UniProtKB/TrEMBL annotation:
Origin organism lineage: Eukaryota, Viridiplantae, Streptophyta, Embryophyta, Tracheophyta
Name recorded for this polypeptide: AT5G11810-like protein
Species this chain originates from: Coptis chinensis
Amino acid sequence: MADKASRGLVIYGDGLMPLISPSHTHLHQLASRGTCGFLSLPHSPPSESDDERVVRELAQLLDAYDSYNIRAAKQSSTSESLVQTISERFMGLRAAIFTNDSSVRSFASLLGLTVLQFDELIMNNNSPREPAVSGLLKLLGFQGCMALDTCEFDLVFVHIKSGGRCSDLKVDIAGGEVEFINGLIGGILEVAQLGSEISTRLHISLVISYGTLAEDKDSVLNLSLQEKANPDLSLLFPRQSYITTGKNSADSIRHHCPMLISQWQEAVTRKDTTEIFTFKEFKEHGANLAIPADRFLHEVAFKLWKAPKYGA
């Protein structure tokens, strides 16, 4: 456990998992440096649009599904005023988000996140897609290799949707979303050298999802530990925590195509034997199997000293 509160950076690639390749070396570097696992999601509602899915899955990450339902039902502004903000729920947590999706902007504002302009992350010199890492870290109170005593935000999200457009983005990253995230991770790892104050105070979470998909229960991208070759052995496998709510099974949870998550903070996160950012690698070598996606923010907030520990 760290002796000071961490500052959190969450980079969320929405629907980008099928686009990751061996060339995205910085994503694989982060996976090899930290601890990896999965965030399980519920089955999609019937006839859900992609825009609805994007907001619903973000709501799961923020443990704000009730707020999503209020918004989706288009209830009165009086009802929406009853929605608890992230700050109210997590001990004054100051959170911001960059996103290239207008629906996400609206929902994030409802939850009290500060919505920032994406062009603040783009450098005007060198490569036009090179992220302004120093500006991002500055929001979290890092300057040079030092952690300042104060920071503007405790937690910053960077949300990149596959094929998304952003009107305030000076450089169109559509078609190069994974390259953008790969560059962002590479820049941060270059600054957060092992042993530096940044590496011990910055908690990085890289979350990549599969996006819209067919309900393929036989997918090879399946979390189930049951042995299909011999159904009689299935009773020997204990129920995993991600499919239970208390003593009951959470039947709405799907086993296939979860979000993949890699987290790193020097001397805080565990080091597993994962080497690359792939489903197969995470399942075989990751230190974590899966937790429900709606527990993710609780885990991160704990590292920021804004929530009690979730789970063991």
